[in-house]
Each structure stands twice: as C-alpha cells, then as structure tokens.
Design a protein that fits this description.
The chain starts with a strand and ends in a 9-residue tail after the last helix. About 35% of the residues lie in helices and about 30% in strands. The protein has one domain. With about 140 residues, it is of the alpha+beta class. The radius of gyration is 15 Å and the shape is globular. The strands form two sheets. Strands 1, 2, 5, 6, 7 and 8 form a six-stranded mixed sheet that branches. The protein is built from five helices and eight strands; from the N terminus they run E-H-E-H-E-E-E-E-H-H-E-E-H.
Length: about 140
C-alpha cells in the first residue's frame, strides 16, 4: 500500500484513479475479515462503508477542496479510536448504507493517508468552507 504524505499526494491519486474512496478503519487487513456495521440498527452491511473521493460532475470548485472536505467528514472516527486511520481504496458498489454512503465489495487498498496530509486537509477545509454550517445557521 502506498503512503500519501501530503494533501497534494492524495489529490494526485484522486485524479489518476476513478473511482476512489476513503475509509477510516483499522486498515485493509483488518477489514478483509470484517464487515461494516450499522451501529444504530446493529445490522451488518453487505460491504465496507466508504466516503467518495472522486468529485461529482457538478463540483465546480478545485479538486483539492473536495478532497479536503471528504477527508474531514469522518476524521472523528480516528480521533475516537487510535487504531483507525484513513486509507484510500477502490472497489465495486454493492449498495448504500443508512447515511447513503457507498458500500464496497471487491476492494483494493491503494494508499494510507498520513497525519500530515490530514492536517493539511483540515486546514484547507476550515479555510475555504463554512465548516460545520447547516441550513439553519
């Protein structure tokens, strides 16, 4: 598995590999024997829960903005469990999870995302977005 040391490294992979996803877990070896779980219903999901790194066709902002935002969306999972880390993968969508997230099978691990790259993503996310703002704000 490659290592993405910077946000620019992640962006390069996003531009080269489509589709690309991010997952926060204990890694591909651990996930090979596990399945994602919907914690609220306690139902096992048919694939790994991921977040899309490939920008949607309607995205008119820089790819770096999309990538930073996507990396930050589930970063709290790693903050709550130090064994979890961000890693990039590709695979086949088998369905959607309860939050409409893609569920993947036939996955291929591509790269681990370093803490430095995540710090860069968080800095960009907070600089260029109204981070955490909702429709009622």
């Amino acid at each position: 598995m490659l290592a993405c040391e910077t946000l620019a490294d992640v962006v390069k992979l996003v531009e080269r590999i489509e589709p690309l996803y991010v997952r926060y877990s204990e890694g591909p070896d651990h996930d090979a024997s596990e399945r994602s779980l919907d914690v609220e219903s306690r139902l096992e999901l048919p694939g790994l829960s991921v977040n899309p790194m490939t920008p949607e066709s309607w995205w008119a902002r820089p790819v770096e903005d999309w990538v930073a935002r996507q990396l930050c969306q589930y970063q709290h999972l790693a903050e709550r469990n130090p064994r979890r880390f961000a890693w990039l993968l590709t695979g086949e969508i088998i369905g959607r999870g309860p939050d409409c997230e893609p569920l993947l099978t036939e996955t291929l691990a591509i790269a681990a995302v370093s803490e430095h790259a995540l710090d860069e993503a968080a800095a960009r996310y907070h600089r260029v977005f109204d981070a955490g703002r909702g429709p009622e704000d």
